[in-house]
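Hi D.,

Good news: the full-assembly prediction came through. Inputs first.
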Amino acid sequence: MPDATLVIRGGTVIGPEGSARLDVAVRADTVVALAETIEPPQGAVILDATGCLVGPGLVDLHAHLRQPGREEAETIETGARAAALGGYTAIVAMPNTEPAIDSAGVAGEVLALGAGCTAEVAVAGAITVGRAGTALAPLGELAALGVTLFTDDGAGVQDGALMRRALDYAKGLGVTLAQHCEDTCLAAGGAMHEGSWSSRLGIPGMPAAAEEAMVARDISLARLTGAPVHFLHLSTAGSVELVRRAKAEGLPVTAEAAPHHMLLTHAAVAGYDPVFRVNPPLRTDEDVVAVVTGLCDGTIDAVATDHAPHAPESKDVPFDQAPAGMLGLQTALPVAWEVLSPHMGPERVFALMSAQPAAIAKLTATDPRTAGHSAQGGPVEVGAVANLCVFDPAAVTVVDPMRLASRSRNTPYAGRTFAGAVRHTVLRGEPVVVDAVAQR
Amino acid sequence: MTGARHLLSVSDLGADGIAEVLRVAEAFAEVERRSVPKVPTLRGKVVATLFFEESTRTRLSFETAAKRLSADVLSLAVATSSVKKGESLRDTVETVEAMGIDAVIIRHSSAGAPHQVARWVERAHVVNAGDGWHEHPTQALLDCFTVRQVLAERKGVAPDELGIGCFEGLRVLIVGDVRHSRVARSEVLAYTVLGAHVTLAAPGSLLPPSLEGWPVEVATDLDAALGDADVVSLLRLQAERGSGSFVPSLREYTARWGLTARRAQRLGEDAIVTHPGPMVRGVEIASDVADLPRTVVTQQVANGVAVRMAILFLLLGGELPGAAEVPAVA
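Then the structure:
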């Protein structure tokens, strides 16, 4: 392969149908050869991938990058660096910034700040103006910029009639509305899952029913309008079952789950450490099992991080005064690998973290409207854009909050060790992470 | 004796720990009966009270206890402190500790705030004086102390002679707003670890959402439950926590769950009525019932000082035993 600029040697390439021991040659931003042995030409960058899985770059449907407005917690640049270190080559920036991403102006600013970062940054727009839940945001104006996902995430659209109108309006635009399912009346004042632990700890709880009521409502609205609905961060067994039945019925619904809802339970709150305050809250053992089962049986389409940085001082307060949210981008794949790999092959783990989320966000093909975005989600094949994640299942991820790329420290996994580690990340042919070190 | 460094929860004590608190408190109750009710036990020690929530009896009780032990008392009035300028709880605590404080007594509207303070301090001892809906350990301890005192008096023996055996099989009925009550959570832990049978009596909306792991029974009919109770612990309906909307009206609450004069006739001859205060006469307790000899509210207040002296002494001048057994409600 005389004109390759980058050769990844010794890895096992993850394909949708199976995996094979292949070297990968990249020229500029494109995969140009896959072969058992590729001799790198003089001057080519060589990445050792012995024993590693070489999959498509991961795609996150759910990242809070905090810019504009909360740059003390995260910037688009630092969030994208955390993403790259986590194996992500594309992330969808959530619109609950200050101001919210509810206009072409703010969306354009975020896209411009994302251009040139170590992961591609797409934007989710708000469904309602200011995420206030009262008036529709200019979905068409945002869709014209290439925005394909809309959500008021951080809150659900409480007014069912408004949500119904938004779905009707969105149908002609070819976009998907995503819901943070939480009935604010039922959840009012809650700071953790309502159950045995909240009752013991004296912390006001939010019942599972607060999530499930809105999942049920929006399934009805998907049936009524025929418009697609994506369910963000499902966290309860009841929600998973509702989505399972909606899919069996053939309704156009998709769903995601966050790594922390696949691993942690409300028992983590026992020490009142606000790092474990997150929304939706950490639930019961049964809920964790249901979320994992949903990922295994196809009810849940994607692992999405809900990466939610908060500045250290904002989490160093009493539990119920702390903002909800935890870091996720840099630990998602090791956590998902630990939880899911006993149940499924690496092809399906990568599908849940790359191809399927890329399809939900419509990032699988280059969109001329979103300047600089390349085709995401794989497959890794000749002619594809070289967006790659090289994961070493034999390595170990040790989570040290002080060494994360995020501006914030609020990881729930401080001091924990996970089997498997992201080794290299390649963005459009550029090795942005080499041996777990960000290159810029 | 393995000492617990802080008193954050009744579960920090265990049955042996409670027994020791009660024993030491008896000794300090004797001090209180002296003409000069003061001992030099904690001379040179500094105790700070940090009350981020309003309080009358608990704050005065702790400060009186500290002064009777000859400790110096610093009292942070939150309304006039740097908290109003936006200083965080952590910085406030670290600032206070930097002044050489030996113990921090904290009340906060957030459950778990004392646990966090305990992680932030370097050497000070932390005492939970009430955190949100979570716990109010010294209240439960003084309730146990008072109940034992009454039982001992009736038997004509010294309370110490009863040990903690007098709680074995004791039937305790906790009535009212359990959901929002830190007193109830601490009482459940204390009474059950001492071997008492605890029953909660409340409308469903005022019970905790889950009682999984609570070694208690639930009574849905107060009238039926009253006759069996040796101790009735009445809780205040906490209107300031929004519990007003948990019942249709105060009138209906009083009618169904208040200890009215008529309902009080169902009580056994020896039944003891406790209330952590402040009482709302006419709501959870009729005024006439509040003034009956069986209602020991003022004794509870008086005993609060001795019990808090015991806690401060055991934390600062000695050691509290660790939890001998961890109760189910941890």
